[in-house]
């Protein structure tokens, strides 16, 4: 599926991201998150996600990947430490709060129960049935140390899943196949004003395998997926990219307005004649198994 180009009314984006978490979360949900839809679809097709799937989504964000699994009939649980994104995920998957029980309520997944929880994997234990699929759809391999927090999360999630269950890790593809790489270099250059903060680095071929090994998982197949980033205009592109959090260190090292200006300039080669922005990218996923 090709990401849709959606036009948004411009609004001031000069305040620090932390000062307006709900707006940033909505930028993620309305602009950026859909860019990864081809990745979600490829993983779900590969693993034949359906009514027998009991899925735990780590860093579930605003819940689009969970919604897609739920519409296939999967029973889904998502955890995230971002309150604003979890609130949006609840709007998507739990549309009727009045019908909610202690753990959630019947969502769009063919009668299966959906749960959206704030916190880490330890909040997601399901005494009824262990999970048979754990997903980590936040791509790694873009900044130095961006997988450091993933390993503890995976280690905490493994006891909640059944033996032989699948764990999906995702990462950026080779820099030469990811147009967005040049924009992330801007973040790295600005962030270098802080010691080691958010430094950009190229994705390595074995990034995902290294994470799996550190978490005690056994690799069991991988794939690559084209995920072009398409935006209605430069303003939407800047807002979408900043909503990823990958520019936070750059903002801390300089200021929001400077980062926005630098990102907009880095986007110039990808602005088409009609004003839309188009950046081809390739992402990689690894399926690992719980021993």
UniProtKB/TrEMBL annotation:
Tell me which UniProt keywords the record has, alphabetically.
Answer: Methyltransferase, Transferase
Bias kind Low complexity: ranges: 12-22
- Chain segments carrying region Disordered: 1-22, 92-119
- Where is each Methyltransferase type domain found? 56-93
Origin superkingdom: Bacteria
Q: Name one GO biological process term.
A: methylation
GO function terms (MF aspect): S-adenosylmethionine-dependent methyltransferase activity
Q: Where is the composition biased (Gly residues)?
A: 101-110
Q: Which SUPFAM superfamilies match?
A: S-adenosyl-L-methionine-dependent methyltransferases (SSF53335)
Under which name does UniProt file this protein?
Methyltransferase domain protein
């Amino acid at each position: 599926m090709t990401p849709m180009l959606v036009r948004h009314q411009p609004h001031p984006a000069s305040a620090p991201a932390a000062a307006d978490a709900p707006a940033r979360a909505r930028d993620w949900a309305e602009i950026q998150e859909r860019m990864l839809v081809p990745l979600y679809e490829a993983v779900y097709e590969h693993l034949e996600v359906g009514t027998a799937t009991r899925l735990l989504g780590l860093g579930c964000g605003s819940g689009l990947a969970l919604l897609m699994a739920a519409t296939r009939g999967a029973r889904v649980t998502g955890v995230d430490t971002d309150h604003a994104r979890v609130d949006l995920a609840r709007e998507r998957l739990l549309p009727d709060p009045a019908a909610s029980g202690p753990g959630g309520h019947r969502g769009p997944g063919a009668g299966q129960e959906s749960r959206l929880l704030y916190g880490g994997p330890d909040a997601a234990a399901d005494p009824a049935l262990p999970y048979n699929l754990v997903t980590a759809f936040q791509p790694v391999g873009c900044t130095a140390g961006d997988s450091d927090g993933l390993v503890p999360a995976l280690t905490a999630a493994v006891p909640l899943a059944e033996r032989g269950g699948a764990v999906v890790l995702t990462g950026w593809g080779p820099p030469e196949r990811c147009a967005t790489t040049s924009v992330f270099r801007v973040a790295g250059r600005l962030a270098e004003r802080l010691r080691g903060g958010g430094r950009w680095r190229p994705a390595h071929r074995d990034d995902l395998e290294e994470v799996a090994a550190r978490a005690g998982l056994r690799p069991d197949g991988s794939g690559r997926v084209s995920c072009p980033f398409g935006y209605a205009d430069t303003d939407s592109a800047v807002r979408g990219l900043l909503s990823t959090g990958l520019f936070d260190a750059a903002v801390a090292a300089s200021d929001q307005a400077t980062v926005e200006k630098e990102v907009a300039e880095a986007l110039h080669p990808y602005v088409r004649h009609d004003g839309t922005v188009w950046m081809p990218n390739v992402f990689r996923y690894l399926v690992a198994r719980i021993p």
